Amino acid sequence: MSDSPLKGIEEMSEARLDEAGIALDFGDVAAERRALAEGAGWLDWSDRAWLRVEGPDAARFLHNMTTNDVKALAVGGGCYTVFATKKGKMIADAMLLRTGEETFELELEPRCLDSLSTMLGKYIALEKAELTDESAVSGALLIAGPKAEATLKAIGLTVPGSDYGHVEAGIEGTSVRLVRLETWTGQPTFELRCPRAEVAELATKLARNEALSPVGRTAFHAARIEAGVPWFGIDMDEERLPMEAGLETRAISYTKGCYVGQEIIARVKYKGHVNRHLVRLKIDGGGPVAPGAEVKLDGEPDAIGEITSCAPALLDGTPTVALAYLRHGHHEPGTKVQVDERDAIVG
Fold first, then answer.
1. Which of 28, 53, 279, 307 could make a disulfide contact with 293, Cβ separation 3.0–4.6 Å?
2. Opening angle at CA 253, ends 85 and 256, nearest 5
3. Radius of gyration of the chain from its Cα atoms, rounded to whole angstroms
């Protein structure tokens, strides 16, 4: 993945950046977290990967490749979905948008791009459909917070009413695709996708809006952990079944028919259960705990799970929150556990 198109622009001058030029924070993570909880924030989203699938067989092809119901999507609609191996293990999770009768776009974590492209390329060869990597020419900004929708409407945009609904729009001459996402941050969350060459110009325009505050990835991940939203590469990976990560209601259709990995996923649904479940933990006192920290029952020597990610208490009156995989039977809300000798509760 190339450097962020925002690297070097004035609006990023006070940011602490990662190696690709993505802002981690702007010097006050707590203030950025408050913007996501109380106002509206914008952040660079240009390190994502994008694939386009188009052609007469595109809908049927994707329907047979992924866990959610693609054929049911109308143009202007979309869904969250998972691509799996024949053993049901995740290759990638993705946002899937239907942008035309024969055209679909996928957005995913860049670490998954090669493996998913290889998987789709293997099966698409005999289909009347083409797969194109759009990552080098696409970019995006994220807008999130309780005032995000009102702010977007105030600048003249029509906001989709349902999750993964999307419309073509313009902001002061810059063409964008506006997508309503799930509440990844615990608040309304939207994506503005545009050509990569125009992301810096779009960010400059948004930065002039006093209702929007710049936000880095540190505050974003704190918000999504508090909201209980897992992230590929952090809370789930290629060794996980989607049900372990709690993605059944978000990403899996049990009525759509066959797809790659369907046999294993359906077997777990109807004949058993997974051995581990991703849960949210509220942890008493102190700062964050490190990924990999063991979760135990009080007084028991053996671990029943481990932490995958943790958000410090950045907002007044909120606890430290973590996501963790716990063994089946210990994952129900209200279960009391310990992390680094600190009391915690599932929920």
1. 307
2. 90
3. 20
